Amino acid sequence: ASSVSLAVTDVTGATRFELQATGKKGLNAVIWNGRIGGRVAPAGDYRVVLKVGDVETVARVRVALADGVSE
After folding, report:
1. Chain mean position to CA 68
2. pLDDT tens digit string along 4-55?
3. What's the first-to-final CA gap in the chain, in angstroms?
4. What is the DSSP letter of 30?
5. What is the pLDDT of residue 68?
6. What is the pLDDT of residue 55?
7. How far apart are CA 60 and CA 71, in angstroms?
8. What value does the CA radius of gyration of the chain take, rounded to a whole number of Å?
9. Which pairs with CB-CB distance under 8 Å and at least 24 residues apart come from 1-5?
10. Calpha distance 12→22 (Å, rounded)
11. Edge-to-edge strand order for the sheet containing 4-9?
12. Three-class SS of residue 13?
């Protein structure tokens, strides 16, 4: 199986959350609780980078804070 990792990076490219995965075939799910270092992630734009072997897939996401949630 290929190595698999998933990272959430901020607009500067700094990794804020990273997960190593097993690379098992089939549908896999990852849940990010929206926290960075135990604190709520600041609202803003992030990139989610999935790397399988030498292949990277990138998606852009926007984090918005729900009413009553503060950074």
Report:
1. 23
2. 889 999 989 999 988 877 778 888 888 888 888 888 888 899 999 999 889 9
3. 39
4. -
5. 76
6. 93
7. 21
8. 13
9. 1/25, 2/52, 2/53, 3/51, 3/52, 3/53, 4/50, 4/51, 4/52, 5/50, 5/51
10. 28
11. 15-21, 4-9, 44-52, 55-63
12. coil
In one letter, which amino acid is 22? T
- Is the alpha carbon torsion for 57, 62, 65, 67 positive or negative? negative
Question: In one letter, which amino acid is 32?
Answer: W
H or E element: which one contains 35?
strand 35-36
Q: If DSSP codes are grouped into helix, strand and coil, which group holds residue 51? A: strand
Kindly tell me if the per-residue pLDDT of 60 is higher than 90: yes
Q: What tokens appear for 17 in the block?
A: 């959350």
- Of the pLDDT bands very low, low, confident and very high (cuts 50, 70, 90), residue 1 is low
Query: CA distances (Å), 33 to each of 6, 8, 44, in order?
Result: 14, 12, 15
